[in-house]
User: What shape does this take?
Amino acid sequence: MESLYHIEADSLLHNHISRELALVEELTTINVARIREDFPILKRQVNDKPLVYFDNAATSQKPKVVIDAIDRYYREYNANIHRGIHKLAEEATVAHEEAREKVAKFVNAKRTEEIIFTRNATESLNLVARSWGQANIEKGDKIVLTIMEHHSNIVPWQLLAEEKGAKVEFVKIDKAGELRQDEVHELIDEKTKIVCVSHASNVLGTINPVKEIGRVAHRYGAMFLIDAAQSVPHMEVDVRDIDCDFAAFSGHKMLGPTGIGVLYGKGEQLENMPPFLVGGEMIREVHTTGASWKDLPYKFEAGTPNVSGAIGLGAAVDYLCGIGMRNVHDHEKEITSYALGRMKQVEGVVIYGPMDVTHRVGVISFNLGDIHPHDLASILDEEGIAIRSGHQCAQPLMEFLQVPATSRASLYIYNTKEEVDLFVNALEKARKLFAR
Amino acid sequence: MSSDIYKDIILDYYRNPRNFGDLTDADVRAKDSNPLCGDIIEMQLKIRDGKVDDIRFKGKGCAISQASASMLTELAKGKTLDELKTMGKPDVLELLGIDPGPTRIKCALLGLKVLKLAVYGHLGQAVTEEVKQLV
Assistant: This one.
């Protein structure tokens, strides 16, 4: 892929320090104007205003390379994979499996077959709860979650616990919106069989110290799962460094298409787990007396998979690697810091979550005076600005924060400070409208 | 979406809701919420000779839901229960003077649903599917 930075080799050789400093500056910041050119949708007008897309935690926009990769698959080599003995099937199978390799490298999995393709992070979490949970959770066991989990990392565990007579407990947060480490140590004990933690919160933006929490879980022999849906798209995530047993994330939040998600699992765990969905594609042999399963990863991929989705996700991974995840994270830190600073100046704004940008991703939940989040979202929409409003699929957290709902602005690589200014101006407009 | 969704009149009803509060001698009460956004509306009605003699509402939620509920209480006063049963979405849109668009229409219709729940409740009649599907 073509480099996204402007590096002028000549300047390295014969120009003085100021030029070199400028170059260092360019190396550490991404060229947002150039990146925006890659996203056709960003040229759109909404209500006669240029689109300001601040709903990236819900789903990201897609670069042309992703759209083209999907288009090319359907135009040139659409086929069912793994079994067809013909050219198209061969090409489609190769592309599908290359996508798996790209994802495996992206999160630094040890083996490619540790990457299971699912529909989304929710399905990945359900897979672990149904397959591993069914086989391993017993009466009296404990499942430890956190109060900031998305519903998809709560409800599968509640259902499992109900069925098995196990208990679900929640690590709470402090005033800064960070997990209470005392509760991590208090709640995780020898009865704990699995600890499930969001790597980055979809409401507070908090980046949780997953490596440390995982160490505590493993000390008691518990499994450690991370919901990485809000971290993998925005920062370097190394599953081996974190040492998690499972990680779940979605393709559509990381520039890929909808309908493709990922479950990473350590090989030794996945190998010992029973299948999740069963039927086509995942079987080795079926007889009237029973069936046996394929090896990883196919054991967990029943039915014709989302081939175009996987190929699109592979293209998204290539695109993100071209920019570099460190650069992605740095840009988001910078713009989040700018947004937090500007938002604080708006009278009546309350921001939920850490103010320290080294501890958070670009997800900013807030309220503005007593304006209901749905009203605020409607007013911003009139200005062409897309944000999310509501309980953010995290009702237990809303109850804990004692707010019925929040508004949420979530940022990505293509967002600019100018867009933050438009957003803050719209907040001021809403404040004045409701102050009358 | 109309650019004047937050017209003065809606904000006025939101900030200064008419008929807000409780009726101590209400003949019927009804309450419902929109599970998607958590908006809540309660209506309390005093019925005399088959007509709405007095009415109050209470609630929490966005400006659209609260303003439309307040406007509905004014419209309902003096109307017969049969008249209320025939009221529908067009009546609410006429009150608001705007179409809030597909993403917000349920906010606007919550008050109507609760009013109808109260009417059917008072008459001891089963709530129709049409009413159930308002929100």
